[in-house]
Amino acid sequence: MKRFTLISLMVIGCLTPAIGSEAGAIFLLISPGARAGGMGEANVAVADDAYASYWNPAGLGFLEGSELAMMHVNWLPNLADDLYYDFFAFRRHVPNLGTFGGHLIYLSLGEQIRMGEGPEDYLGTFTSFMMATTVSYSSLLTQYSSFGINAKISYQHLVDLGAGAEKGKGTSLDFGFDLGYLRKEIFTPRLDFGLAITNIGPKVSFIDPAQADPQPTNLALGLKYKVIDDEFNKLSIVYDVNKLLVASYPDMDWDGDGIIGGCDDEGHCSGTPGNGEYNQDGDKETAHTDPVYIAIFTSWIDDWLLGGDTDFSGDGKIGGYDSEGMPTDTISFGQPGYGQYGCEESENICSEENLVKEVGTGESRGIKDELNKLVHNFGMEYWYSEYFALRAGYYLDQSGKISNPTFGVGLRFSGYGFDFGYTSGEPGHPLTNTMRFSLNWEF
To answer: Which of 91, 204, 216, 288 would you call most buried, defined as having the most Cβ atoms within 10 angstroms of its Cβ?
Structure first.
């Protein structure tokens, strides 16, 4: 890949580390609202203000009147000082029709340096940004349940033009949908349940459509339990779990012949690594993702049941080296003595330091690998009367190596609201010391 988007891609990869290599337009997963930010970003079963158009559009159905909301945050302060994220939302209830709303997202990636194909080929600077606009509608199904839908358009501007032989602009214009459901007082008057499927749409591509990535289609399930609910004191515990509905596969040997691909999509096989993306059974073995209508199902099993041995070394073969780095290609694949290791070669030298096990890696995967990709959000919120709130939470993403505690406060008076959320964590982590500020105005 050319260097013209290097810095932009590094920034994007830090936004949501768990899915940076699987999906495009992942800025859509940045959580708005300082209130939710103080509760570990758990809000799917809460969704009781204008921010519901992002978290769960079904929450709008229970709201009356009108509201404006906005948030500003200096994003990833430990990574760069010119990144920021803005969010604007609106809702309005129309009697006998339901509640309409929407939001606008703007993420600035700051100024970048454009480089050509050579290390000294300086081409000046450019700015990168991403934005999305969403229209929402929600209506009550019953006294205790509601349904909501979003329609959105997103635009990503990474760079004005490509470098070298790459033609066109590094921009992308896409559309998508969100669906939401909210059920209050499920099983008990103290428990609410929320469900949202977001970012349903076609793949995202920039200069090369063949390298398009799926949208970050996400399933979120949320619970809210009211521990204390009296006139002056309210304490709620909230929990969300998120599952990315993206099925992604690296270079893998699905049919067990020891090579990646070797055949074209018409079934013509040469048996040579790199000559064709498919195996003799017609399965694609080079890196790919499933379409969204398939990934909704396969994303639950792609990290443990589907696929075969992985080509970690990138040489188009599975194994071929022993534990000391000696090639064993003269021995047939699957026979005793054939090397289990691939070699990440450096200057054509293979040693124990750049060996990686490849044979048997397909069988070594289990359901734990899938469960590790779930993102968990825990939070609690205490309200004194209707004027002052204290919040705390925890964000856990094992795959993305994110485990950040969060804290927040909130104030409400005469229809105006102010919220502050703070993300703590280990020193040096990109999300540590992130501060969110948001305002609400109900009228």
So the answer is: 91
